[in-house]
Specification:
Elements: H1 7-23, H2 28-58, H3 62-68, H4 72-78, H5 83-120, E1 127-130, E2 137-140, E3 146-150, H6 151-156, H7 159-174, H8 177-190, H9 195-217, H10 220-233, H11 250-258, H12 267-302, H13 306-309, H14 321-324, H15 327-336
Parallel strand pairs: 1-3
Antiparallel strand pairs: 2-3
Amino acid sequence: MLISVYVPFAVTAVLTLLAPRLARRLTPRPAAWSLACAALVTAVGWTGSLALLAFTGIAQIPQVAAEGHWSVAALRAEDPVYAVVAAVSAVVLAASAVSLAVASFRQVRQVARARRECAGLRGDTELAVLDDATPLAFALPGAPGRIVVSRGMLRCLADDEREALLAHERAHLRGRHHFFLSLWRLTAALNPLLRPLADTGAFVLERWADEEAAAQVGDRVVVARAVGRAALASAGASRPASLAVTGGEVPQRVRALLAPPPARRSLPFLAGALLLTVCCASLANAASDSDRMVDSAQRARCAVPVGAASTAPTGDHRHGPAFCCGPHHRGERGEHQP
């Protein structure tokens, strides 16, 4: 546990530094899925490691040890974690839990508002046209989702560019990109180190939609022109949804569309999968070591002689071996009884 419990932190740091740079150069769709898996696994590893480190300190509280029926002295003798590390881990874990709860509440409220807006749109077709001069275009999640475009945006684009815009927004709905955004926002709330992954993920989703639109329209230049014109037309206008043709870093998206499609590469994905596997294996090993330490501390308490129990520190052996040896040890004691 001395080393393995810290490995998820190291994996998170490595992915935070390297993944955003690599994801922008890879094929958008597998890059988005990889970023989602990386965010989810590292968030679990982050939380698990903090919980294990915090437990080593909480478990040495006499009242907690009395409830768990283990020896504080034995646990302290085997525990390699400093008390200050355990205390800091407990504080960070509590702060992460609060941040996740707040982010979850905001996410649920945002989804509910989007569904209400979607239900309030006129008509029952996929496309809803707003009678508004402000250039707007975005995908609105719902059951089913809707594509919302204002008349001001339609007037800014040519016919082929309108087709590209609709193909872009349709790709957002078809790919369930709102779920990706929700995952990245929640994991970033739980672990602030994952915020670069969330920012990069939003850009990759726009690139994913761009590439699908280019494949559907059959002309990458038309999609690039539609993205650029839509962004210029809507400059300064507020967007009610986060997934829109004008989202992300538009100049980089246009340059990517004017270039050939990104080549498929497997090595970065294999390296990322290896890092995530190491993260999971290290967390499992740390949890196994923590469980072993607790079992050893429980056996140590049960092994204390009856006479020593009266002189043991409070909270360590104050109940004597007859109490600390719970049902899981009664069979062992019964074998030696006459």
